[in-house]
Amino acid sequence: MATPDELVAKELARLSADFIARLPEQLRRVEDEVTAWLDAPRDRGRYEVLAHRVHQLKGSGSTFGCPGISRAARMLEQRMGDLRREIDAGQRPAITDVESAMAQLQNEGRRAQTRLRRQEGGK
Amino acid sequence: MRSETTVQSGGLHRILYVEDDADIREIVRMSLEMVGRYTVAACESCADALQVVDDFRPDLLLLDVMMPDMDGPSTLRKLRRRDSAVDAPAVFITAKVQAGDMAQYKQLGAFDVIVKPFDPMALPERIGQIWQSYREGEYGDAG
To answer: In chain A, how many domains are there?
Structure first.
């Protein structure tokens, strides 16, 4: 009979696989929202929705075995915050930093997918 | 939502947990219930927590900070208006910890802060340590 630790570890493994399987869709949504926000960077409501989604990825990535996702989401969150402060200060915003952070997040997503496929292939 | 379990840390039985991320909420609930043997009311929002808090009468509040409709500190302010949660120690869970944030969270009413990402398997032990610190501060003992 499985111990409580083993049961929780098994559930964590299941949730981690689900998290990685859903990453492409989640990251596509984040990228669409980044694009929409960069088209209208003064839209505070749009920023808040996007910031919450990125913040969730930062918090859940490492918990579900994807520390690279957490790191890339943290970078995107920081770059978004920098951009928002530039806009609030009336400066010309440098959107390429946000775009490159988004690209890095997509790279990490692809890495996690590759890792999951390898793990599933090894079963 | 909850299950009856035995007690791990002296005096800590019931944990009211509020987290909007369904996956995180599920693994934390499982870990606290199965490994920590606590009784957990896992809620997805402040509104959900306000519905259950009076019946549940939590010993400890575990609150995610960044939630879409009502954040952790605001949720804590609402819960504090209920007699059933007026003096339960609150622990914030957050991925946003920069210089000065810890002090600010404590000013907002948190007894302690757990930083995301965290190891779900180690969380019950961490909660037990926080509870012991609370008891030592409150009653001068760990039991």
So the answer is: 1
